[in-house]
């Protein structure tokens, strides 16, 4: 086939491209040629059309040269050739000098702007919060800190990570949104480098939050960052209180030693595993925890009211109209869900759940209690449980152990995952425990895998996303989880039963996409840990409260059937529910409506409703309570903290009212711990 000959335009473009490829000299030559091609003709037109045209051709050409020289800053001197040449030479020298000076100034300014853009200047702030590292929790942590500083003037949040400063700012502003009064400052560099870390002025900060990176080396990096924080302190200068998180409990001791006595280290995987294990028995608990940890919702606050001194804690439960009493703070130590007969002492503070730290108001709510509508206690269900775990990740062994800790004898956990059987069996080795684990290999995204299971026979289903694999997109685990949930939802419709499904997602943006029924619960692992870290950084006195709530035993948040507290189908006040919970040794703090369980954003949850609020309670409604073994836990000396009955016994006996010692009297006893 005969090739078509290139046209003149194509050949000209090719020739032009080849000349430009020769380098700077070619570019300068083309620049001179283009300028002369434009300036010389224009100068000639001006000379020939001027009112006073020079006489003779030589005079006109001299005038054209003068205009051209003035335009191109080449002197424009006329006369002998040597004189013209020297004039052009001087003009070129001046041009090179000016150009070089401008270039140097431009380069210096550019380097300075680049340094500022990279975030290499030292912060001059006091009372700010420093966030070190970049992970899935950073958007939650920064968002909560912005919410916490909404009513504060001059609040600032500094983020230091080994990423581009502009990219960090764009990502944070797109996810967090407007920051209001809070200034958001980003600095770029490795947080484990003391010289770079000093850019955030940690010594003058109100608190420092250390986030674990998402890669496998994250925990080691956290320890290095904590050591770098210690290195930035000079002399007797102490760093700000630190809140850090590690995933692997093997790094917990090292992180605590590096954080120092004022540091708090959170085990993120353990906390997440416990929440999932708790939600597996009662889906919806993650909503309660998020409400209590979110600065936008109701939170824990200490309240002092002298008029409550001398009253029983059981009476105090009905003494707040717009807050829920959940415990005491005695000698600075939180004590959740104390016995109802515990006497309020002059130095005690009441731990309440309220909208803000100054909104808890006293009110006599006992008049709203209707004894006739309180239900009789029902025996607890102790039959063996069956739980189905779909998927496997690094938290799966922790979840199974936490679930098995409170599982009745004979309970079974079936694990379906595309994982080696030996790995699952080793992780699920229950020893002498009263429950067992059964593994079945299969891909949980395949419909045939789920269709082969007797889904209706399980009490709950836990869906876990696998750990990201090398070269895999970060969103791939969530994508697979959504596929599994879609098939489960189809099975629910086929069997005509709502399955209590608990699923773990990493991206909160995927929650609206999850095909879930009313009985399902979604735990955003990174979000809950981020909320917890932000809350502790702003309210360090609550660290012991959250430690107790998220502990393996002791006092915890529970969702229990409303039929255990009030008669179903009857209209009763929330004060009646509080009184019924008090009789069971619990603190009621809210409820979840079954009719609204599928409606965003609250999904039927109401924390801290007014005691006077009346509603009709249905069979599917649930009551949120704080309960557990903390109510009867003895202190380190073996004695249970003082209650009304114990006080009366002391007055009947020893005159000083102390049974041989007191943990506040310096006898070595420890204060009560929830």
TrEMBL record:
Keywords from the UniProt entry: Ion channel, Ion transport, Lipoprotein, Membrane, Transmembrane, Transmembrane helix, Transport
Subcellular location as annotated: Endomembrane system
Segments crossing the lipid bilayer: 20-48, 84-110
Extent of Basic and acidic residues compositional bias: 642-667
UniProt region (Disordered), positions on chain: 628-674
InterPro entries (alphabetical): CASTOR/POLLUX/SYM8-like, CASTOR/POLLUX/SYM8_dom, NAD(P)-bd_dom_sf, RCK_C, RCK_C_sf
Occurrences of domain RCK C-terminal (ranges): 282-368
Name by which UniProt lists this protein: Lipoprotein
């Amino acid at each position: 086939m005969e090739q078509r000959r290139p046209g003149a335009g194509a050949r000209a473009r090719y020739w032009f491209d080849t000349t430009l490829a020769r380098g700077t000299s070619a570019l300068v030559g083309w620049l001179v040629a283009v300028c002369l091609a434009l300036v010389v003709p224009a100068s000639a037109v001006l000379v020939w059309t001027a009112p006073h045209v020079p006489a003779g051709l030589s005079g006109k050409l001299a005038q054209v040269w003068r205009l051209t020289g003035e335009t191109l800053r080449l002197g424009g001197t006329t006369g002998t050739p040597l004189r013209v040449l020297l004039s052009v030479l001087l003009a070129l020298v001046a041009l090179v000098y000016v150009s070089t000076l401008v270039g140097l100034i431009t380069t210096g300014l550019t380097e300075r702007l680049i340094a500022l853009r990279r975030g290499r200047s030292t912060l001059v702030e006091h009372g700010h919060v420093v966030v070190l590292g970049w992970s899935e929790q950073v958007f939650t942590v920064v968002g909560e800190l912005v919410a916490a500083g909404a009513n504060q003037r001059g609040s600032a949040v500094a983020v230091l990570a080994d990423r581009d400063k502009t990219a960090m700012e764009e990502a944070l502003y797109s996810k967090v949104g407007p920051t209001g009064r809070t200034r958001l400052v980003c600095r770029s560099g490795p947080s484990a480098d003391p010289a770079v870390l000093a850019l955030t002025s940690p010594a003058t900060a109100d608190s420092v939050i250390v986030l674990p990176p998402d890669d496998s080396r994250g925990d080691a990096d956290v320890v290095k960052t904590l050591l770098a924080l210690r290195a930035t302190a000079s002399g007797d200068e102490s760093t700000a209180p630190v809140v850090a998180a590690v995933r692997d409990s093997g790094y917990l001791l090292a992180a605590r030693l590096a954080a120092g006595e004022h540091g708090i280290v959170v085990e993120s995987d353990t906390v997440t595993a416990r929440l999932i294990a708790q939600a597996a028995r009662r889906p919806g608990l993650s909503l309660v925890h998020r409400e209590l940890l979110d600065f936008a919702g109701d939170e824990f606050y200490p309240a002092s009211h002298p008029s409550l001194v001398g009253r029983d804690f059981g009476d105090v439960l009905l003494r707040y109209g717009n807050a829920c009493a959940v415990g005491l703070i005695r000698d600075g130590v939180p004590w959740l869900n104390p016995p109802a007969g515990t006497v309020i002492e002059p130095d005690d503070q009441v731990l309440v759940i309220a909208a803000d730290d100054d909104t808890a108001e006293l009110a006599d709510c006992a008049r709203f209690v209707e004894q006739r509508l309180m239900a009789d206690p029902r025996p607890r269900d102790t039959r063996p449980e069956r739980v189905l775990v779909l998927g496997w990740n690094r938290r799966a062994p922790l979840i199974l152990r936490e679930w098995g800790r409170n599982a009745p004898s004979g309970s079974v956990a079936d694990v379906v995952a595309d994982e080696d059987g030996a790995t699952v069996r080793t992780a699920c080795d229950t020893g002498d425990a009263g429950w067992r684990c059964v593994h079945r290999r299969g891909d949980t995204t395949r419909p045939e895998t789920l269709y082969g299971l007797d889904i209706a026979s399980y009490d709950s289903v836990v869906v876990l996303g696998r750990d990201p694999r090398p070269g895999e997109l970060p969103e791939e685990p969530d994508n697979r989880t959504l596929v599994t949930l879609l098939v489960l939802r189809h099975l629910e419709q086929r069997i005509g039963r709502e399955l209590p499904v608990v699923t773990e997602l990493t991206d909160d943006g995927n929650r609206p996409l999850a095909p879930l029924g009313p009985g399902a619960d979604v735990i955003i692992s990174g979000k809950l840990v981020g909320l917890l870290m932000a809350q502790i950084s702003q309210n360090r006195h609550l660290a012991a409260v959250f430690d107790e709530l998220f502990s393996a035993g002791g006092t915890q948040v529970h969702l229990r059937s409303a039929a255990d507290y009030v008669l179903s189908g009857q209209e009763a006040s929330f004060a009646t529910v509080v009184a019924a919970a008090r009789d069971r040794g619990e603190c009621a703090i809210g409820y979840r409506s079954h009719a609204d369980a599928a409606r965003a954003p609250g999904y039927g949850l109401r924390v801290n409703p007014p005691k006077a609020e009346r509603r009709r309670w249905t069979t599917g409604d649930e009551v949120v309570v704080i309960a557990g073994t903390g109510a009867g836990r003895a202190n380190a000396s073996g004695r249970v903290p003082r209650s009304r009955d114990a006080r009366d016994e002391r007055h009947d006996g020893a005159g000083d009212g102390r049974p041989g010692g007191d943990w506040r009297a310096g006898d070595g006893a420890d204060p009560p711990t929830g």
